[in-house]
Amino acid sequence: MKTSAAVIGAGTSGLIAARRLAQLGIETYVYDQKANLGVPVVASGIISINGLNSLKIGYKPAVTNTLFGANIHASNKVMRIKSNVPVAHVLDRQKLNEICKEESEAAGAHVITGKKITENALDEIGNSSIIVGADGPLSIVARHFGMGGISKYILTYKAEFEMSIENSGSVDLFFDNKIAPGFFAWHCPNSEKIMEVGIGIDSKHGNSKAAFYKFMGTDFCKDISETGKKLGEHASIIPIRTAKKIVDEGKEVLLIGDAAGQVKPTTGGGIIYGGNAAMMAANAIYEHVKNSKPLKDYEKKFKRKYATDIRLHALAHALYSKLSAKGIGRAITLLNALGMESFLGEYGDMDSPKTILKRMLTRKK
Fold first, then answer.
1. Which residue among 1, 5, 177, 249 has the highest number of C-beta atoms inside a 10 angstrom radius?
2. Are residues 105 and 12 in the same domain?
3. Residues 151 and 171: beta-carbon distance below 8 Å
């Protein structure tokens, strides 16, 4: 019987899984082909404070900014959602990964960087260890073990600009399917002096870099183009559908994080869902090794906790993806008239639309 675990991919979810496995006394090895974890930084780092606290990471040294709300733009209409208390942090993702690596190693996990895992190596590792695939949306683990792909992806492109920022407490989201088909564009103050500009498009629409520069040519980006000093730019791919299969009981393989498509389809954010799934997977592996419990328990627990929220996020994404900018603008006007700006500012939850609905129903009563 296999009594050790091999985590393929040393991103946030993989390292959280390794930390928990090591804490439970499971011999754990983590493999990542990058010599320096988190370099280059290709993922944005806006993460809810409540969600971060659920992961039990000592994340505070990685915080570069704190957000109180968001401004949603479409067809010259704006919904301004603002909380009186901080709701999210912007994190330095490289620093966050360094913290997660330190925590997993302190717990006893062995983190091996600069090592590319081939398909032959996976077979060899799988002979003696339970495999946790945490190797991103184009997971070699999922492909090699025949666990199926992810059906829907977003292509993103972003750049950072050094500039003077008047309001660093809010992120701006721009919806226009002629510019960002199937997703949206954004301005995120990563700090008081660094503005991130980014865009996402449905993968079937092709070139995210071209979409990015089209967005940069709009009036929304005029001040940034004229006064900002570009520091760097990056492309990435993010899944917005959960993988069809995240556990293979017979082969003793589990998928977590982006490899499993454990993201919010509205925004592509995956740290909270993926990080919590990583701990569930680690607990299931422990129960499998020590008490012969099925690894499928991990999948059941993940679905029990997140399936409804993921479905609601997917529904919202499908809705805004089909609407024109004018259609979204009209929706903003209606929602503002119904008092949704203040309601979301007070009761919104960026991770859980299920919680928002419950609060709306409770409020009506």
1. 5
2. yes
3. no
Q: The pTM is what? A: 0.94
Tokens of 156: 């993103």
Taking alpha carbons only, the member of 83, 146, 103, 74 closest to residue 14 is 103
Q: Would you list the DSSP string of 235-263?
A: EEEEE-S--S--EETTTTEEE-GGGGT-S
Look up tokens 């944005």; give the residue. 44
The SS3 assignment for 322 reads helix
Alpha carbon distance 282, 231 (integer Å): 38
Check whether the bond before 265 is cis (ω within 30° of 0): no
Structure tokens at 231: 């520091």
What torsion do the CA atoms of 138, 143, 147, 153 make, to the nearest 10 degrees? 20
State whether 196 and 331 are in the same domain. yes
Residues in contact with 78: Cβ distance below 8 Å, sequence separation at least 6, in sequence order: 71, 72, 332
pLDDT digits (tens, 9 = 90+) for 82-121: 999 999 999 999 999 999 999 999 999 999 999 889 999 9
Same domain, 23 and 168: no
Give me the helices (H) in 112-258, please: 119-126, 140-144, 208-216, 222-227
Tokens of 220: 């929304």
Q: What's the CATH number where 331 sits?
A: 3.50.50.60
Torsional sign, CA 211, 310, 295, 149: negative
The number of folded domains in the chain is 2
Quick: pLDDT tens for 42-73.
Answer: 556 899 999 999 999 999 999 999 999 999 99
Residue 19: CB atoms within 10 A of its CB come to 28
Amino acid identity of 357?
L
Calculate the alpha carbon distances from 113 to 38, 51, 229, 280, 338 in Å. 11, 28, 33, 24, 52
Sheet bearing 185-189, strands edge to edge: 77-82, 69-74, 170-174, 185-189, 194-202, 153-162, 229-239
